[in-house]
Write a structure and sequence with these properties.
Elements (H helix, E strand, L loop, with lengths): L29 E2 L8 E2 H8 L4 E2 L8 E2 L12 H16 L10 H20 L3 H16 L1 H60 L4 H33 L46 H7 L2 H4 L5 H13 L6 H8 L10 H20 L1
Antiparallel strand pairs: 1-2, 3-4
């Protein structure tokens, strides 16, 4: 049986094979193999596994390891390292996206099944872990084509995102250059206009105030024209994009529909129990009820007078439109609804006929 996985201690920097210490050898590098996650120094890995596959030298492990399978642990806690590797391995097989499902509920169920599988692989023991491995293997074999297609689609999405990022950076650079160019042009126009104003003032022709105001209007007009042109170019670039950016938008995806909201549970099956012969009030004036309202023995336990009002009104008015005289009259008629079955109706009729014959014989 392999040795149980233990959480690595940051202070434990000793190779379990050659007992080399990082304190004495600061350049010592530890490696692990995902087959068993037992750490050992790179020197031991080169010495033991350079000639080919060999069993793990850690006591009670005996897993067959290969040199190309060793890597540097990213996390100090090897349990976290192992879980991340398992998640990466499962995500390569269960690599469907939300766009592959009709509803969000189906996608959430798919994610839940994936998490259950990961849990069994990480924390499962014996049979549960073996069943999870078999399930992962069967799913990989049965959906090999779809897995490869999803992997290729994922790579295309990554490439599209990279190209989009490059394009956005280029557009940002162009905007910065445009802003710098406009700033330089504006400064040049201001300097040119200032020189023209000074020349006109030096010549003594015209009013100085009018010349200054006219120069200021010219500067504002040119600045506004440059700003309008820049906004128009930005809108065009945002709407169409460059030639390299065409086709980056993902099209043809399934339309996602939200699952139907589950209605609250109704124990009466939709039957309307609202009273039709009366309207139940929130409160009634009654001397006995008023005494209960002020009695903490009745109200402290959460007793609701509204329930009492409902029962009292139902008992008082539940017999409306029911007349006993009509029921008694119908009870003696053959085939009346007061007799439950057809056999009872026939027996009642025969009994009456027999009684009539007996009276006639007398």
């Amino acid at each position: 049986m392999p040795k149980p996985l233990e959480t690595s201690d940051p202070s434990d920097d000793i190779c379990p094979i050659c007992k080399s210490n990082r304190y004495l050898n600061p350049s010592l590098q530890f490696l692990i193999n995902p087959e068993c996650y037992h750490k050992m120094c790179s020197t031991c890995v080169d010495r033991i596994f350079s000639s080919g596959p060999a069993p793990c030298p850690v006591l009670h492990c005996a897993r067959t390891l290969r040199k190309k399978g060793f890597k540097t642990a990213f996390f100090e806690d090897l349990a976290i390292e192992r879980e991340c590797d398992i998640r990466r391995r499962v995500s390569e097989v269960f690599n469907r996206s939300e766009d592959d499902f009709e509803t969000l509920l189906d996608y959430n169920n798919y994610l839940q099944d994936t998490e259950d599988l990961i849990w069994d692989l990480v924390n499962g023991k014996g049979k549960a872990k073996q069943e999870a491995e078999d399930k992962l293997r069967r799913f990989r074999e049965a959906n090999r084509g779809a897995i490869e297609e999803n992997k290729a689609a994922r790579l295309r999405e990554v490439e599209m995102g990279r190209r989009r990022e490059i394009e956005e950076k280029e557009m940002a650079r162009q905007r910065r250059l445009t802003a710098l160019r406009e700033d330089a042009e504006e400064k040049a126009d201001v300097e040119k206009t200032r020189k023209q104003v000074l020349d006109q003032l030096a010549s003594g022709e015209g009013d100085a105030v009018a010349i200054t105001q006219q120069a200021h209007k010219i500067i504002l007009k040119k600045s506004s024209a440059r700003r309008t042109l820049g906004e128009r170019d930005a809108a065009i670039n945002a709407g169409t994009g460059s030639a390299d950016g065409e086709g980056l938008t993902i099209r043809g995806l399934k339309k996602k529909t939200a699952p139907v909201a589950e209605k609250p549970y109704d124990p009466f099956g939709g039957i309307d129990l609202t009273p039709s012969r009366y309207v139940l009030q929130d409160d009634y004036e009654n001397q006995w009820v008023d005494g209960i309202k002020r009695d903490p023995k009745h109200m402290a336990g959460g007793y609701s007078l509204h329930d009492y009002y409902g029962r009292a009104m139902h008992d008082a008015l539940g017999g409306l439109e029911i007349f006993i005289e009509d029921e008694v009259k119908d009870r003696h008629q053959p085939g009346s609804s007061s007799i439950g079955t057809a056999a009872a109706v026939q027996a009642s009729t025969e009994k009456k006929q027999t009684a009539v014959k007996a009276e006639s014989m007398i």
